Structures are given as structure tokens and as C-alpha cells.
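Exam revision sheet. Question 4 asks you to relate a sequence to its structure. Input first:
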Amino acid sequence: MLLTLDLSDPRPLHEQVATAVRRAIVESEIRPGDRLPPARDIAAALGVNVNTVLRALRELRDEGLVEFRRGRGISVVGAPDPRGVLLPQVRELLDNARRYGLQPKDVIALIEEAS
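Answer key, C-alpha cells:
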């Protein structure tokens, strides 16, 4: 499992770590049933604090992607549902667009323009 972070990314490091693990699961680099390396090893490989990695792993646990098992480490239990992951972000985008007077069709046009 090769994870990388973009230090120019403005998102908090724990979100970047969680995103990197999610991506590895979606791309089948890590499959359900696989065990993740210890948080210390992930932190050392990424050059971040172990608490940053633990926060990301707790977030993934809360999403139902990994489970913590005492004595067995952290295992992948499932792949993320892209719709479930993106839906809250889409709703937030639409809320922000409405604040600026844009309609959903305007947001769709912006997305098509950006693609």
C-alpha cells in the first residue's frame, strides 16, 4: 500500500490520509479482509504524527470502511459507496450555490465546464 499526501493541499492532513486510504480501497490496492499496517508505520511513511493517522482511521471506522480489533489490528471491512461519500458534499455545494443565487442547473453547467 503506497499512500502519498499533497503538502500544497489546503485540507487538514487527517482528511488527506483518510482520502488516500479510501482511494486505495476503491482502486483495490487494499481489499476487504486485508489488514492495514500499524498507525505508527503509516505515520512514519507519510511523515505525519501518529495521532493524525489515528484520527483518519477513526473517521474511516465511523464510515464503516475499517474495523479496529484488539490484538489483530485494523482490517478493511468494505469499499465506500461513492454516492454515499459524495452526496453530503453535493448538498453542501448546492447550498453554497443557492447563497450566491445559483440554481442547480447553473452548478451542473459549472461542473461540465470544469470537466
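Marking note for examiners. DSSP finds five helices and two strands in the chain.
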